[in-house]
Amino acid sequence: MNNLKIKLSIFINYFIFAILLNSVGTVILQVQTTYGITESSASVLEAFKDLSIAAMSFLVASYITRIGYKKSMLLALIIVTIACLGMPLVNQFWMTKLLFGAVGVSFALIKVSVYGTIGLVVKDKNEHISLMNFVESFFMVGILSAGFIFSFFIDDKNPQSTAWVNVYYLLAGLAVLAFLLLLTTKMDESSIKKETDVKATGDFEEMFKLVVVPVVLVFVASAFIYVLIEQSIMSWLPTFNSKVLHLPNSLSVQMAGILAASTAIGRFLAGVVLKKLKWLTALIICVLLSGGMVLLALPLAQNLGNEAITGWGNAPLVAFIFPMIGLFIAPIYPSINSVILSTLPTRQHGVMSGLIVIFSALGGTTGSLITGYIFEHFGGQSAFYFSLIPMAILIICLVIFNRLTEKK
Prior knowledge:
This protein is mainly alpha-helical and 408 residues long. It contains 19 helices and no strands. It has helices at 3-21, 24-34, 39-42, 44-67, 69-90, 93-121, 125-153, 167-183, 200-211, 214-234, 237-243, 249-273, 279-297, 318-321, 326-329, 332-343, 349-378, 380-385, 388-407.
């Protein structure tokens, strides 16, 4: 089995889905101007994405080892290619809902498969947590690329233009290339294959039994809260840049890429640092620094003046500082995922990966809906100040999670 080619394949798959999944912030901004959709109505796109991820993950976690990781990823790439081609051909708001539903279903297949595959190509716990952070950092590189790719297709001179949907032709082409690479990659999944006569209900029962284990229960709470924080910021940062900081739409999308870049750097550095530093200490410091960034940056969004912003050169300071929060929130998610997976036997990684995706999706939807509501009724600054509450709760969850894993 060629581990290097397998790693390359999962990196590229993650890269493509990073662009598609996290373009939701850009699309939320664009549908407001293109189709005249309100903030609350646009926020449902996150739900279409995340709830489809959650529903599909519930099913796929029980069947994934019999379907096979490779076959599941190939199927996901086929589905998302068709959905991408449908966007420019239909060009309606309902199609954006269908697109994110399809992307959610596909990502459930991809993420559970990728997390399961990592267990096949690493030797120990330290290598597992390191590779997990590198994979997630590559995910953030995809998000960063998304901002620039989408902004290239946005017409600031004609805000109502639907030319931006043509970006999905490019994304469909990338998905086809990823499909061909994976198709030619050999994977040995014999170590996790289950007997074909095991009933599906047995797998569902195993999932339910796993989720009520105290260490898993605290973990899923931590994952839920983390993703609530991350997606509330990531999905609404382009709208914050546009409506609060008064940046042009294309620039709003581009500068939101700073968050992706800082998160990618943070996860890359974490892949090195966490080999030597205790994960709990590092993550609590990260959460505290994230809260500090909120308190430091958001006051800078007040009294910006009336100067027309035309580019990066005269953008307000807050547009550069606030997205740097990604440096500090970056290591949290992949680290807690790696800790819980390393605690469990390899045969349970598929089921646990499904639970990770389900509760992450629910957290993302909750965060986006809450932020969209606060944004519409109380303003963008209040929406982002809200993140301080789940940050405080997350610290408590991490401490409890650490105690339970040590006992385990």
